[in-house]
What does this fold into?
Amino acid sequence: MKAQHIAFILLIDLLWAFNIVAIKEAVQLIAPLLSVALRYGVVLLVCATSLRLVKGRMRLVLMTGLITGAIQFGLGAYSYQVTTNLSALAIAGQLGVPLSLILAILIDGERIQWRRTAGIALAVMGVMLLVFDPRIADERLGIFLTFGASLCWATGNLLFRRLTGVPVLTLYGWQAIVSIPVLLTASWFLEPGGIAALPAVPLSGFLWVTYSAIAASLIGHAGMSWLLQRYPVTLITPFTLPTPLLAVAIATVVYGKPVTPLMWVGGALTLMGVAIITLRTAKKSVERL
It folds into this structure.
């Protein structure tokens, strides 16, 4: 694997990890649902020239866009607004990996052996420790909202499998088109005064939103798709495992919130479970080739 491509993967890890700061700062200055709508406005501007009708699959494209766009990121934005210890969200967000596997078992009939079963159990146990940690009891709402967002992400993974061959920027463009009106309507009813307050938002608020749209969504996800077209998944996926560790480190440094002993244990269990699932799934994918 070329050194520049390894560097690119690590850059993506860093962009994704730092995005927790971008989202937190954005929702402190802009109403959460509105901030996500603005994020998709930037995405749409970038992806507009890539928009194409996907014959025979537009209903699936739009449904996928709604679930992985407006609903997933809407829940995620609210989780950041109500949470002060972002390390807890960085750990809880890893539930998307075991949830993806659980849905694949229930819906696609995928069979797994004891190693990935153990990985699911470890990841769930780790997040459950966060929920019962008395030192971060105030973060439980944020953790539950993150669980909802992770479930949407996992559902989206299942749907994206049925959209193989559709260009990434095309999918993101339609995701923006379906999400923006839903988010704006929801913001109008649930965030009174949010839209009217936009002229008073400092420039930094819009810059944080732009970072999330371009760095995390477009460079991160589109870049990862580009790499997966060139290398086996067994080479790529292990390089994404540092992301939650980087996110916890960044959150701790930027906001000074302590990582409690139960968070250390819960985080270790969760990341161990995610690592097992990721590596075993990658190996199975190559074996099928």
Summary: The chain has a mean pLDDT of 88. The radius of gyration is 18 Å. The chain is about 75% helix and 0% strand.
